[in-house]
Design a protein that fits this description.
heterodimer, A: alpha/beta, 7-stranded mixed β-sheet, 17% strand, globular, B: mainly alpha, 2 strands, 43% helix
Chain lengths: 823, 219
């Protein structure tokens, strides 16, 4: 009996047979199968009690109601609410991904920090809140004691004008004594100026999309996320249903076949920047053929016919201007459209019962062109589509209470009267309140920066501003930068001090009239979870900063908590008349807005209203706002002004400091005479040295990619196609004709270069791209945040060479001269 | 040639012993060693005495006319019909709310109060009956509609003064109660095992063979 090879094999065979008669192989197989269920990286939902918390999404100006499903204390899903009169149960991909913004630890600051590495490296060290607030306060106090509080500047990225956070930040700046309160420009800024100049009202401009039967959209990306996808996509579905019965039509005017253009009834591609010419060309046909609303124009408009001013001067009217300069041939040439097309568009517009012309560009998160917006407004006025069902609605702002007045001390009083660094409101830019592009230029070019300390709230200008990197260069010159961002974003990486805010799911904040909604609505978010980290609500931090600064600054903020401020403002809503704090969802909120019957409030007293606001997040008044009882227009003439007398006054005031021609040149306005004060087409300024840059760059946005200060939830990367993002490279869309001129193939790597900079991307051929143009998606090119966002694709903002929009001075980002070379 | 015959004879003779040795060895490994090695013994965070809690003479406040109702006081149903399972701290602190005043002199309670109630930490109980993620099970369907007593599937825990020893399968992480304490899988009582076949057998026996369709439990 020796253990030779044969016997060994027999041993093994015996063992093999034996093991079959034991539970081992069967149990092991079963166990291995279950083991594969349990690998540690396989996500398993927690077990626990199910609850739902209702809140409002604030990731974009749309203000959709959201319901967040939780298991015990863990939020697991965001859904749209059906009991919120903005978004009938819908929510956009970014809104749905909001939980990643909450829970992704790599993306967030968890506590206050101070910079310890070199500027821009993103290396920080934890500090306490006491130290953080103390550092900022001593910095501000020094500026005040040196008598230069104006060296403090603040950048505010809150979208909606009148947000309580914006009110507080502006109040803080005023109390400290600095005029340099800057806002990140979005389409609302351009709406505001257009509204002010033509109607005398600065309130929100809304559109009654759901009730229109002909939507002439000048670039509004309905399916790209324009003004709140939750509401707009529902409106879109209503329009499509009507369209099936030939009861509605959507015409999309855009140089690229976006999703919206592809699914519209008609797609009209005009050269970017010539939209005003198209609007006026359509106006020409309406006027010439007598297809305009004579009653409205003759009775409620000023400046249509030629007129004589009280000083005896003769002025041409809008009619004369348009008939002379914007005939189909002329407009066709400017826009590169067939004249017959312009005529047919005009006829379709006039034939419709409830047409509306909309202006906004892409997602609406960037400013537009002022004269273009005015031209499209004029089109609506010509057809009498202002404050009519289905048309453009001019509204009064939400009647929130004004915070009590406060006294500035001498230092603050002197400081806040100093001229703004960005020149907004000056003779060159009389209409605009904030010009962050000018601010960046001034600081970047200075030897001694006029800014000592910069505070950044709810924004990421280094990444989002279409400015070819100018803001970043300005930051490099700024001695001290403070970021309140909850996220580890590109701007925060340049900061010296971080005082991180909560994310939107962890705090109370307001939504002051969701963008473009037809009726007044005030939304209030509530914390869905307890704050996960040691962050603090920036509103509370402002109160703490004021208290620590003390003196007149402290007295300007006599409140214990941010919520107290919200409550004070909400009192204004209560006093303004009946409103509703519940929405059953059975009625469709876009119907019945024109009813005249008195509304009955569904709360008894202010406490009841406030309690409901806090738990349900809603106060609204489902009626078309403004102009019902009083006069709709608050312009000097009391009418809709084709010729803006307000603008004329403003320019005349500015002209006291220089010749009118000089002033208009400084404003970037090429027109002269009466044309300046009326909507007209201004040819885009081409920067010097652009001869070598024959193509034009147009950035575009899409619904599943965030281009704003809110980061894209990383899992949305999975929804991007291979010709949008492949591994780490993003793509530029080019028409095959244009690509052929440069001998470029699909997927080819190229440099896209402008006077400001260059980016490397790959080419994708797209018939829907206008020849001669290069289209780059906004939202790629992060180098901060976490591993999923960092290093993916290229940011077109670094290449954009912004010229200034005539009159408003806001950046022109849709027309950068570029050249393309193989990489 | 002679040697060869001899050696093959030798090996033939000794050969079957190896076969047998291998066979018996495998039997031992499979029936004895394997179950010992497969399960690890893990202590519960501290001892919970079911018997005391379910004895109305010892403990007041755990209400219920029947034993089942008393089980459901802690292991009951929420308003939306979901099953609570192993209760959270808030159930215990209905009575054990003050870390400074224990309701008994048992060391287990002292541990509980100090480590968990005082720090507001959930007790990390090890669950004897957790099923893999692929299994969907509705307690309310079985308890309220099927009228099945808790001990039918779980055995009689109510009278235990000590929590049974928790043994976890080293490969899968699940409790030994699922396969059953006997490695053979032989079942004497309904509560001995909780594998798929056991559920299927009971469904059939109770006249609900349709509940054995795959998607009923594997959603």
């Amino acid at each position: 009996m020796e253990l030779n090879r044969r016997n060994f094999i027999k041993l093994l065979v015996g063992g093999a047979v034996g093991i079959q008669v034991t539970p081992l192989p069967w149990k092991l197989t079963d166990d291995v199968a279950i083991w594969t269920d349990n690998w540690p990286w396989v996500p398993v939902p927690p077990r626990g009690a199910f609850t739902s918390v209702k809140s409002v999404c604030t990731l974009c100006p749309g203000g959709c109601g959201i319901s967040v499903r939780k298991v015990d204390n863990r939020a697991v899903k965001i859904e749209g609410r059906t009991d919120y009169p903005v978004n009938p149960g819908g929510v956009c991909p970014i809104g749905m991904g909001g939980l990643e913004l909450l829970y992704d630890k790599d993306m967030r600051f968890t506590r206050p920090m101070k910079r310890v590495g070199p500027r821009g490296a993103g290396v920080f060290q934890d500090i306490s809140w006491e130290e953080a607030i103390g550092t900022l306060c001593s910095r501000i106090s020094s500026l005040r004691s040196e008598g230069r509080p104006e060296a403090l500047a603040a950048v505010d990225g809150h979208y909606l004008r009148g947000s309580t956070m914006s009110v507080l930040i502006e109040r803080l700046m005023k109390a400290i004594g600095s005029p340099n309160y800057l806002r990140v420009p979005n389409s609302e800024d351009t709406y505001r100026i257009a509204g002010a100049l033509m109607t005398g009202r600065e309130g929100p401009i809304a559109c009654d999309l759901e009730n229109s039967d002909f939507v002439l959209s000048f670039g509004c990306g309905f399916l790209e996320g324009w003004q709140g996808a939750g509401r707009v996509i529902n409106a879109w579905s209503i329009l499509r249903e009507k369209a099936l019965n030939n009861k509605a039509k959507v015409v999309q005017i855009e140089s690229r076949a976006s999703n919206t253009a592809s699914k519209a009834d008609k797609w009209v591609a005009v050269k970017p920047g010539t939209e005003a010419a198209l609007a006026l060309g359509i106006g020409h046909v309406l006027i010439k053929e007598g297809l305009y609303n004579k009653e409205f124009v003759n009775n409620q408009c000023f400046g249509f016919e030629d007129w004589t001013s009280p000083d005896g001067k003769e002025h041409i009217g809008f009619k004369t201007l348009v008939l002379k300069k914007y005939g189909p041939d002329q407009a066709g040439k400017l826009t590169s459209l067939e004249p017959a097309r312009i005529v047919s568009l005009a006829i379709d517009f006039a034939k419709a019962k409830a047409p509306v012309a909309l202006f906004g560009k892409s997602k609406g998160l960037l400013n537009g062109s002022l004269y273009e917006f005015m031209s499209v407004m004029a089109l609506n006025a010509l057809s009498g589509r202002l404050n009519q069902p289905g048309g453009i609605l001019i509204c009064d702002p939400l009647p929130l209470a004004v915070l009590p007045e406060f006294q500035q001390d001498a230092v603050a009083s002197t400081g806040s009267r100093k001229p703004r660094i960005d020149g907004a409101g000056s003779s060159s830019y009389p209409c605009t309140r904030s010009l962050i592009n000018n601010f960046a230029d001034t600081v970047a070019k200075s030897d001694n920066s006029p800014v000592d300390t910069l505070m950044v709230f709810s924004s990421n200008p280094v990444f989002t501003l279409p400015d070819g990197g100018r803001f970043k260069r300005a930051l490099e010159k700024t001695p001290f930068i403070v970021s309140f961002s909850p996220f580890r974003d590109e701007t925060a990486f340049m900061a010296d001090l971080i005082l991180p805010d909560h994310t939107y799911l962890e705090k109370v904040d307001d939504v002051v009239w969701p963008a473009a909604l037809q009726f007044p609505l005030y939304g209030l978010t509530r914390p869905v979870v307890e704050p996960l980290h040691h962050t603090r609500h920036s509103g509370d931090v402002i109160l703490q900063i004021a208290k620590k600064l003390g003196g007149s600054v402290g007295s300007a903020f006599p409140w214990k908590a941010y919520e107290d401020v919200l409550k004070i403002r909400a009192m204004g809503l209560f006093k303004s008349g009946p409103g509703l704090v519940q929405y059953e969802g059975k009625t469709t909120f876009w119907e019945g807005l024109g009813e005249n019957g008195a509304l009955k409030a569904d709360y008894k007293d202010f406490d009841g209203m406030w309690k409901a606001l806090k738990s349900n997040g809603l106060w609204y008044r489902p009626r078309y706002a403004a102009g019902a009882e009083q006069s709709l227009f608050k312009s000097p003439s009391g009418k809709f002004e084709f010729y803006s007398t307000l603008l004329e006054t403003v320019v005349s005031e500015s002209a006291k400091t220089g010749s009118r021609d000089e002033i208009l040149d400084a404003m970037g306005v090429h027109a002269r005479g009466d044309e300046v004060f009326m909507p007209h087409y201004e040819k885009a300024a081409v920067p010097e040295g652009s001869g070598n840059y024959p193509l034009r760059l147009v950035p575009y946005a899409q619904i599943n990619l965030s281009s704003s200060w809110v980061p894209t939830p990383p899992f949305l990367n999975k929804t991007l196609f291979d010709n949008e993002l492949l591994k780490d490279e993003s793509f530029a869309e080019m028409n095959p004709k244009t690509a052929a001129e440069y001998h470029l193939e699909e997927g080819q790597r190229v440099w896209i270069e402008s006077l400001s900079g260059k980016v490397k991307v790959r080419v994708t051929l797209f018939d829907g791209a206008m020849p001669g143009y290069v289209f780059l998606p906004r939202g790629f090119g992060h180098y901060a945040y976490d591993e999923f966002l960092r290093g993916k694709g290229s940011n077109p903002n670094t290449v954009i060479h912004p010229s200034k929009d005539p009159l408003s001075g806001l950046p022109v980002w849709w027309n950068t001269p570029v050249r393309i070379t193989k990489a | 040639m002679e040697n060869r015959a001899k050696s093959s004879e030798k090996s033939k003779k000794g050969g079957w012993i190896f076969l047998l040795a291998g066979f018996v060895g495998a039997l031992i490994i499979g029936w004895v060693v394997f179950p010992m090695v497969l399960y690890s013994k893990q202590p519960q965070p501290f001892n919970f005495n079911h018997a005391i809690h379910l004895n109305p003479e010892k403990v007041e406040g755990i209400e219920g006319d029947t034993e089942a109702e008393r089980c459901e006081f802690c292991h009951g149903f929420r308003d939306d019909g979901t099953f609570i399972g192993i209760p959270k701290l808030s159930t215990c602190t209905q009575c054990h709310d003050d870390p400074e005043s224990p309701l008994s002199d048992l060391p287990a309670e002292a541990t509980f109060l100090k480590k968990y109630v005082a720090t507001e930490t959930q007790v990390p109980w090890l669950s004897y009956f957790k099923q893999p993620d692929c299994v969907y099970f509705s307690h309310i369907a079985h308890v309220k509609i099927g009228n099945i007593a808790c001990k039918t599937c779980h055995g009689d825990y109510g009278h235990l003064a000590r929590l049974p020893l928790y043994e976890a399968n080293r490969l899968t992480g699940y409790s030994i109660n699922i396969w059953g304490k006997r490695i053979s899988g032989y079942k004497k009582h309904t509560w001995d095992r909780m594998k798929m076949d056991d559920c299927a057998d009971c469904h059939k026996k109770m006249g609900h063979p349709e509940d054995n369709a795959c998607f009923v439990c594997h959603k």
